[in-house]
Amino acid sequence: MRAHGVEFIQGLLLAFACMVILMPPFLRLLRWLGMGKQIREDGPGTHLVKQGTPTMGGVLIVVVIIVLAAVFGAYDASTYSPLFVLALVGALGAIDDYLNARTGIGIRGRHKILWQVIVAIVVAVYVQNHFGFNGFRVPFIGPVQFTAIIPLPLTDEGIQVGALIFIIVAVVAIVGCSNGVNLTDGLDGLAGGTLVFAFISFLIIALLNEPYQPNLAIVIAIVIGAMMGFLWFNVHPAQVFMGDSGALSIGGMLAVIALITGQVLILPLIGIIFVLEVASDVIQVGSYKLRGKRVFRMAPLHHHFELGGWDEEKITMRFWIVGALAGMLGVTLFVASIPK
């Protein structure tokens, strides 16, 4: 391990300690504010007992990560974008959590997507301009760049094809991963645990990557510690839910880290659980609209297994196992593709 090795461990442990210490008073604040989760009646009947469980726990996760990133001085070009997405999408999620708890109706889906797309475009353009990405690192092949120029009337030189493709892929990755994590956040500890394994994978990638980005690795370690501290209260039976404030923002942050490390093509593998959750939802809706029939008992995927008789803890643990194995496979693929 290179320089800053002690800081990775310090950041992780300090983030965990902050979450464990601050969560009890934060839960009392959420209860005082009336931030109880409104459980949808069209979901699994077993979830109705969770009615009123404090939500918006993601706010504390976001605050702890941003504050500790400042404490460790982990601010540079490699961390501005992930923290920007964390804060801006986290703010959107917090508003949605608040409205859902108070009225039972949150922000409309199309409005959330619009905000996510706007944030994603800003971040994608910044990352492309700063790091000069004009292509992708393809496993076993290496960097593949597209340098042809598209003439644009507003510029003298136009824009490189690779830059445009990168921005499009980046926006899809950020919005898709953000909503994928949000869909996964439907069982106690499910999203939190799979996120821990995904961020551990990218911590290893950041430590072995070239060019070396120590501040990004420190921020990733802080995220891991904060998520583990959150899981202390979120495992079944959950004392608090992450809510959109955490799921949307941390999912988007994960995608930005994949972009900055140059490993966005490995993201679908490392985040395979999030991909499967989104795919199941898309397939279910598409099948019902086109054929009038459902493919799954209920979407997203974890509800399908739940209605099939699996206990909540069994689903969570098995999804964690799949997430851990996918993360190890993703890291293996990355290591195998490092130029010798």
What would your notes on this structure say?
- The chain is mainly α.
- It has one domain (5-265).
- The protein has twelve helices and four strands.
- The strands form two sheets. It has a two-stranded antiparallel sheet. The protein has a two-stranded antiparallel ribbon with strand order 3-4.
- The radius of gyration is 20 Å and the shape is globular.
- The protein starts with a helix and ends with a helix.
- The model has no long low-confidence stretch (mean pLDDT 90).
- What percentage of amino acids are in beta strands? under 5%
Number of domains: 1
Look at the structure and give the mean pLDDT.
90
Span between termini: 18 Å
What kind of sheet is the major sheet? Answer: 2 strands, antiparallel
Overall radius of gyration: 20 Å
Q: Total strand count, please?
A: 4
- Numbering strands along the chain, what is their spatial order in the largest sheet? 1-2
Helix content range: 55-70%
| Count of individual helical segments | 12
Uncertain segments are none
Output the helix-strand order. Answer: HHHHEEEEHHHHHHHH
Question: What is this entry, summarized?
Answer:
This protein is 68% helix and 4% strand.
How does the SSE layout of this entry go?
Elements: H1 5-33, H2 58-71, H3 77-103, H4 109-131, E1 135-138, E2 142-145, E3 149-150, E4 159-160, H5 161-184, H6 190-208, H7 214-234, H8 243-260, H9 267-270, H10 272-291, H11 301-307, H12 312-336
Antiparallel strand pairs: 1-2, 3-4
Helix pairs in contact: 1-2, 1-7, 2-3, 2-7, 2-8, 3-4, 3-8, 4-5, 4-8, 5-8, 5-10, 6-7, 6-8, 6-12
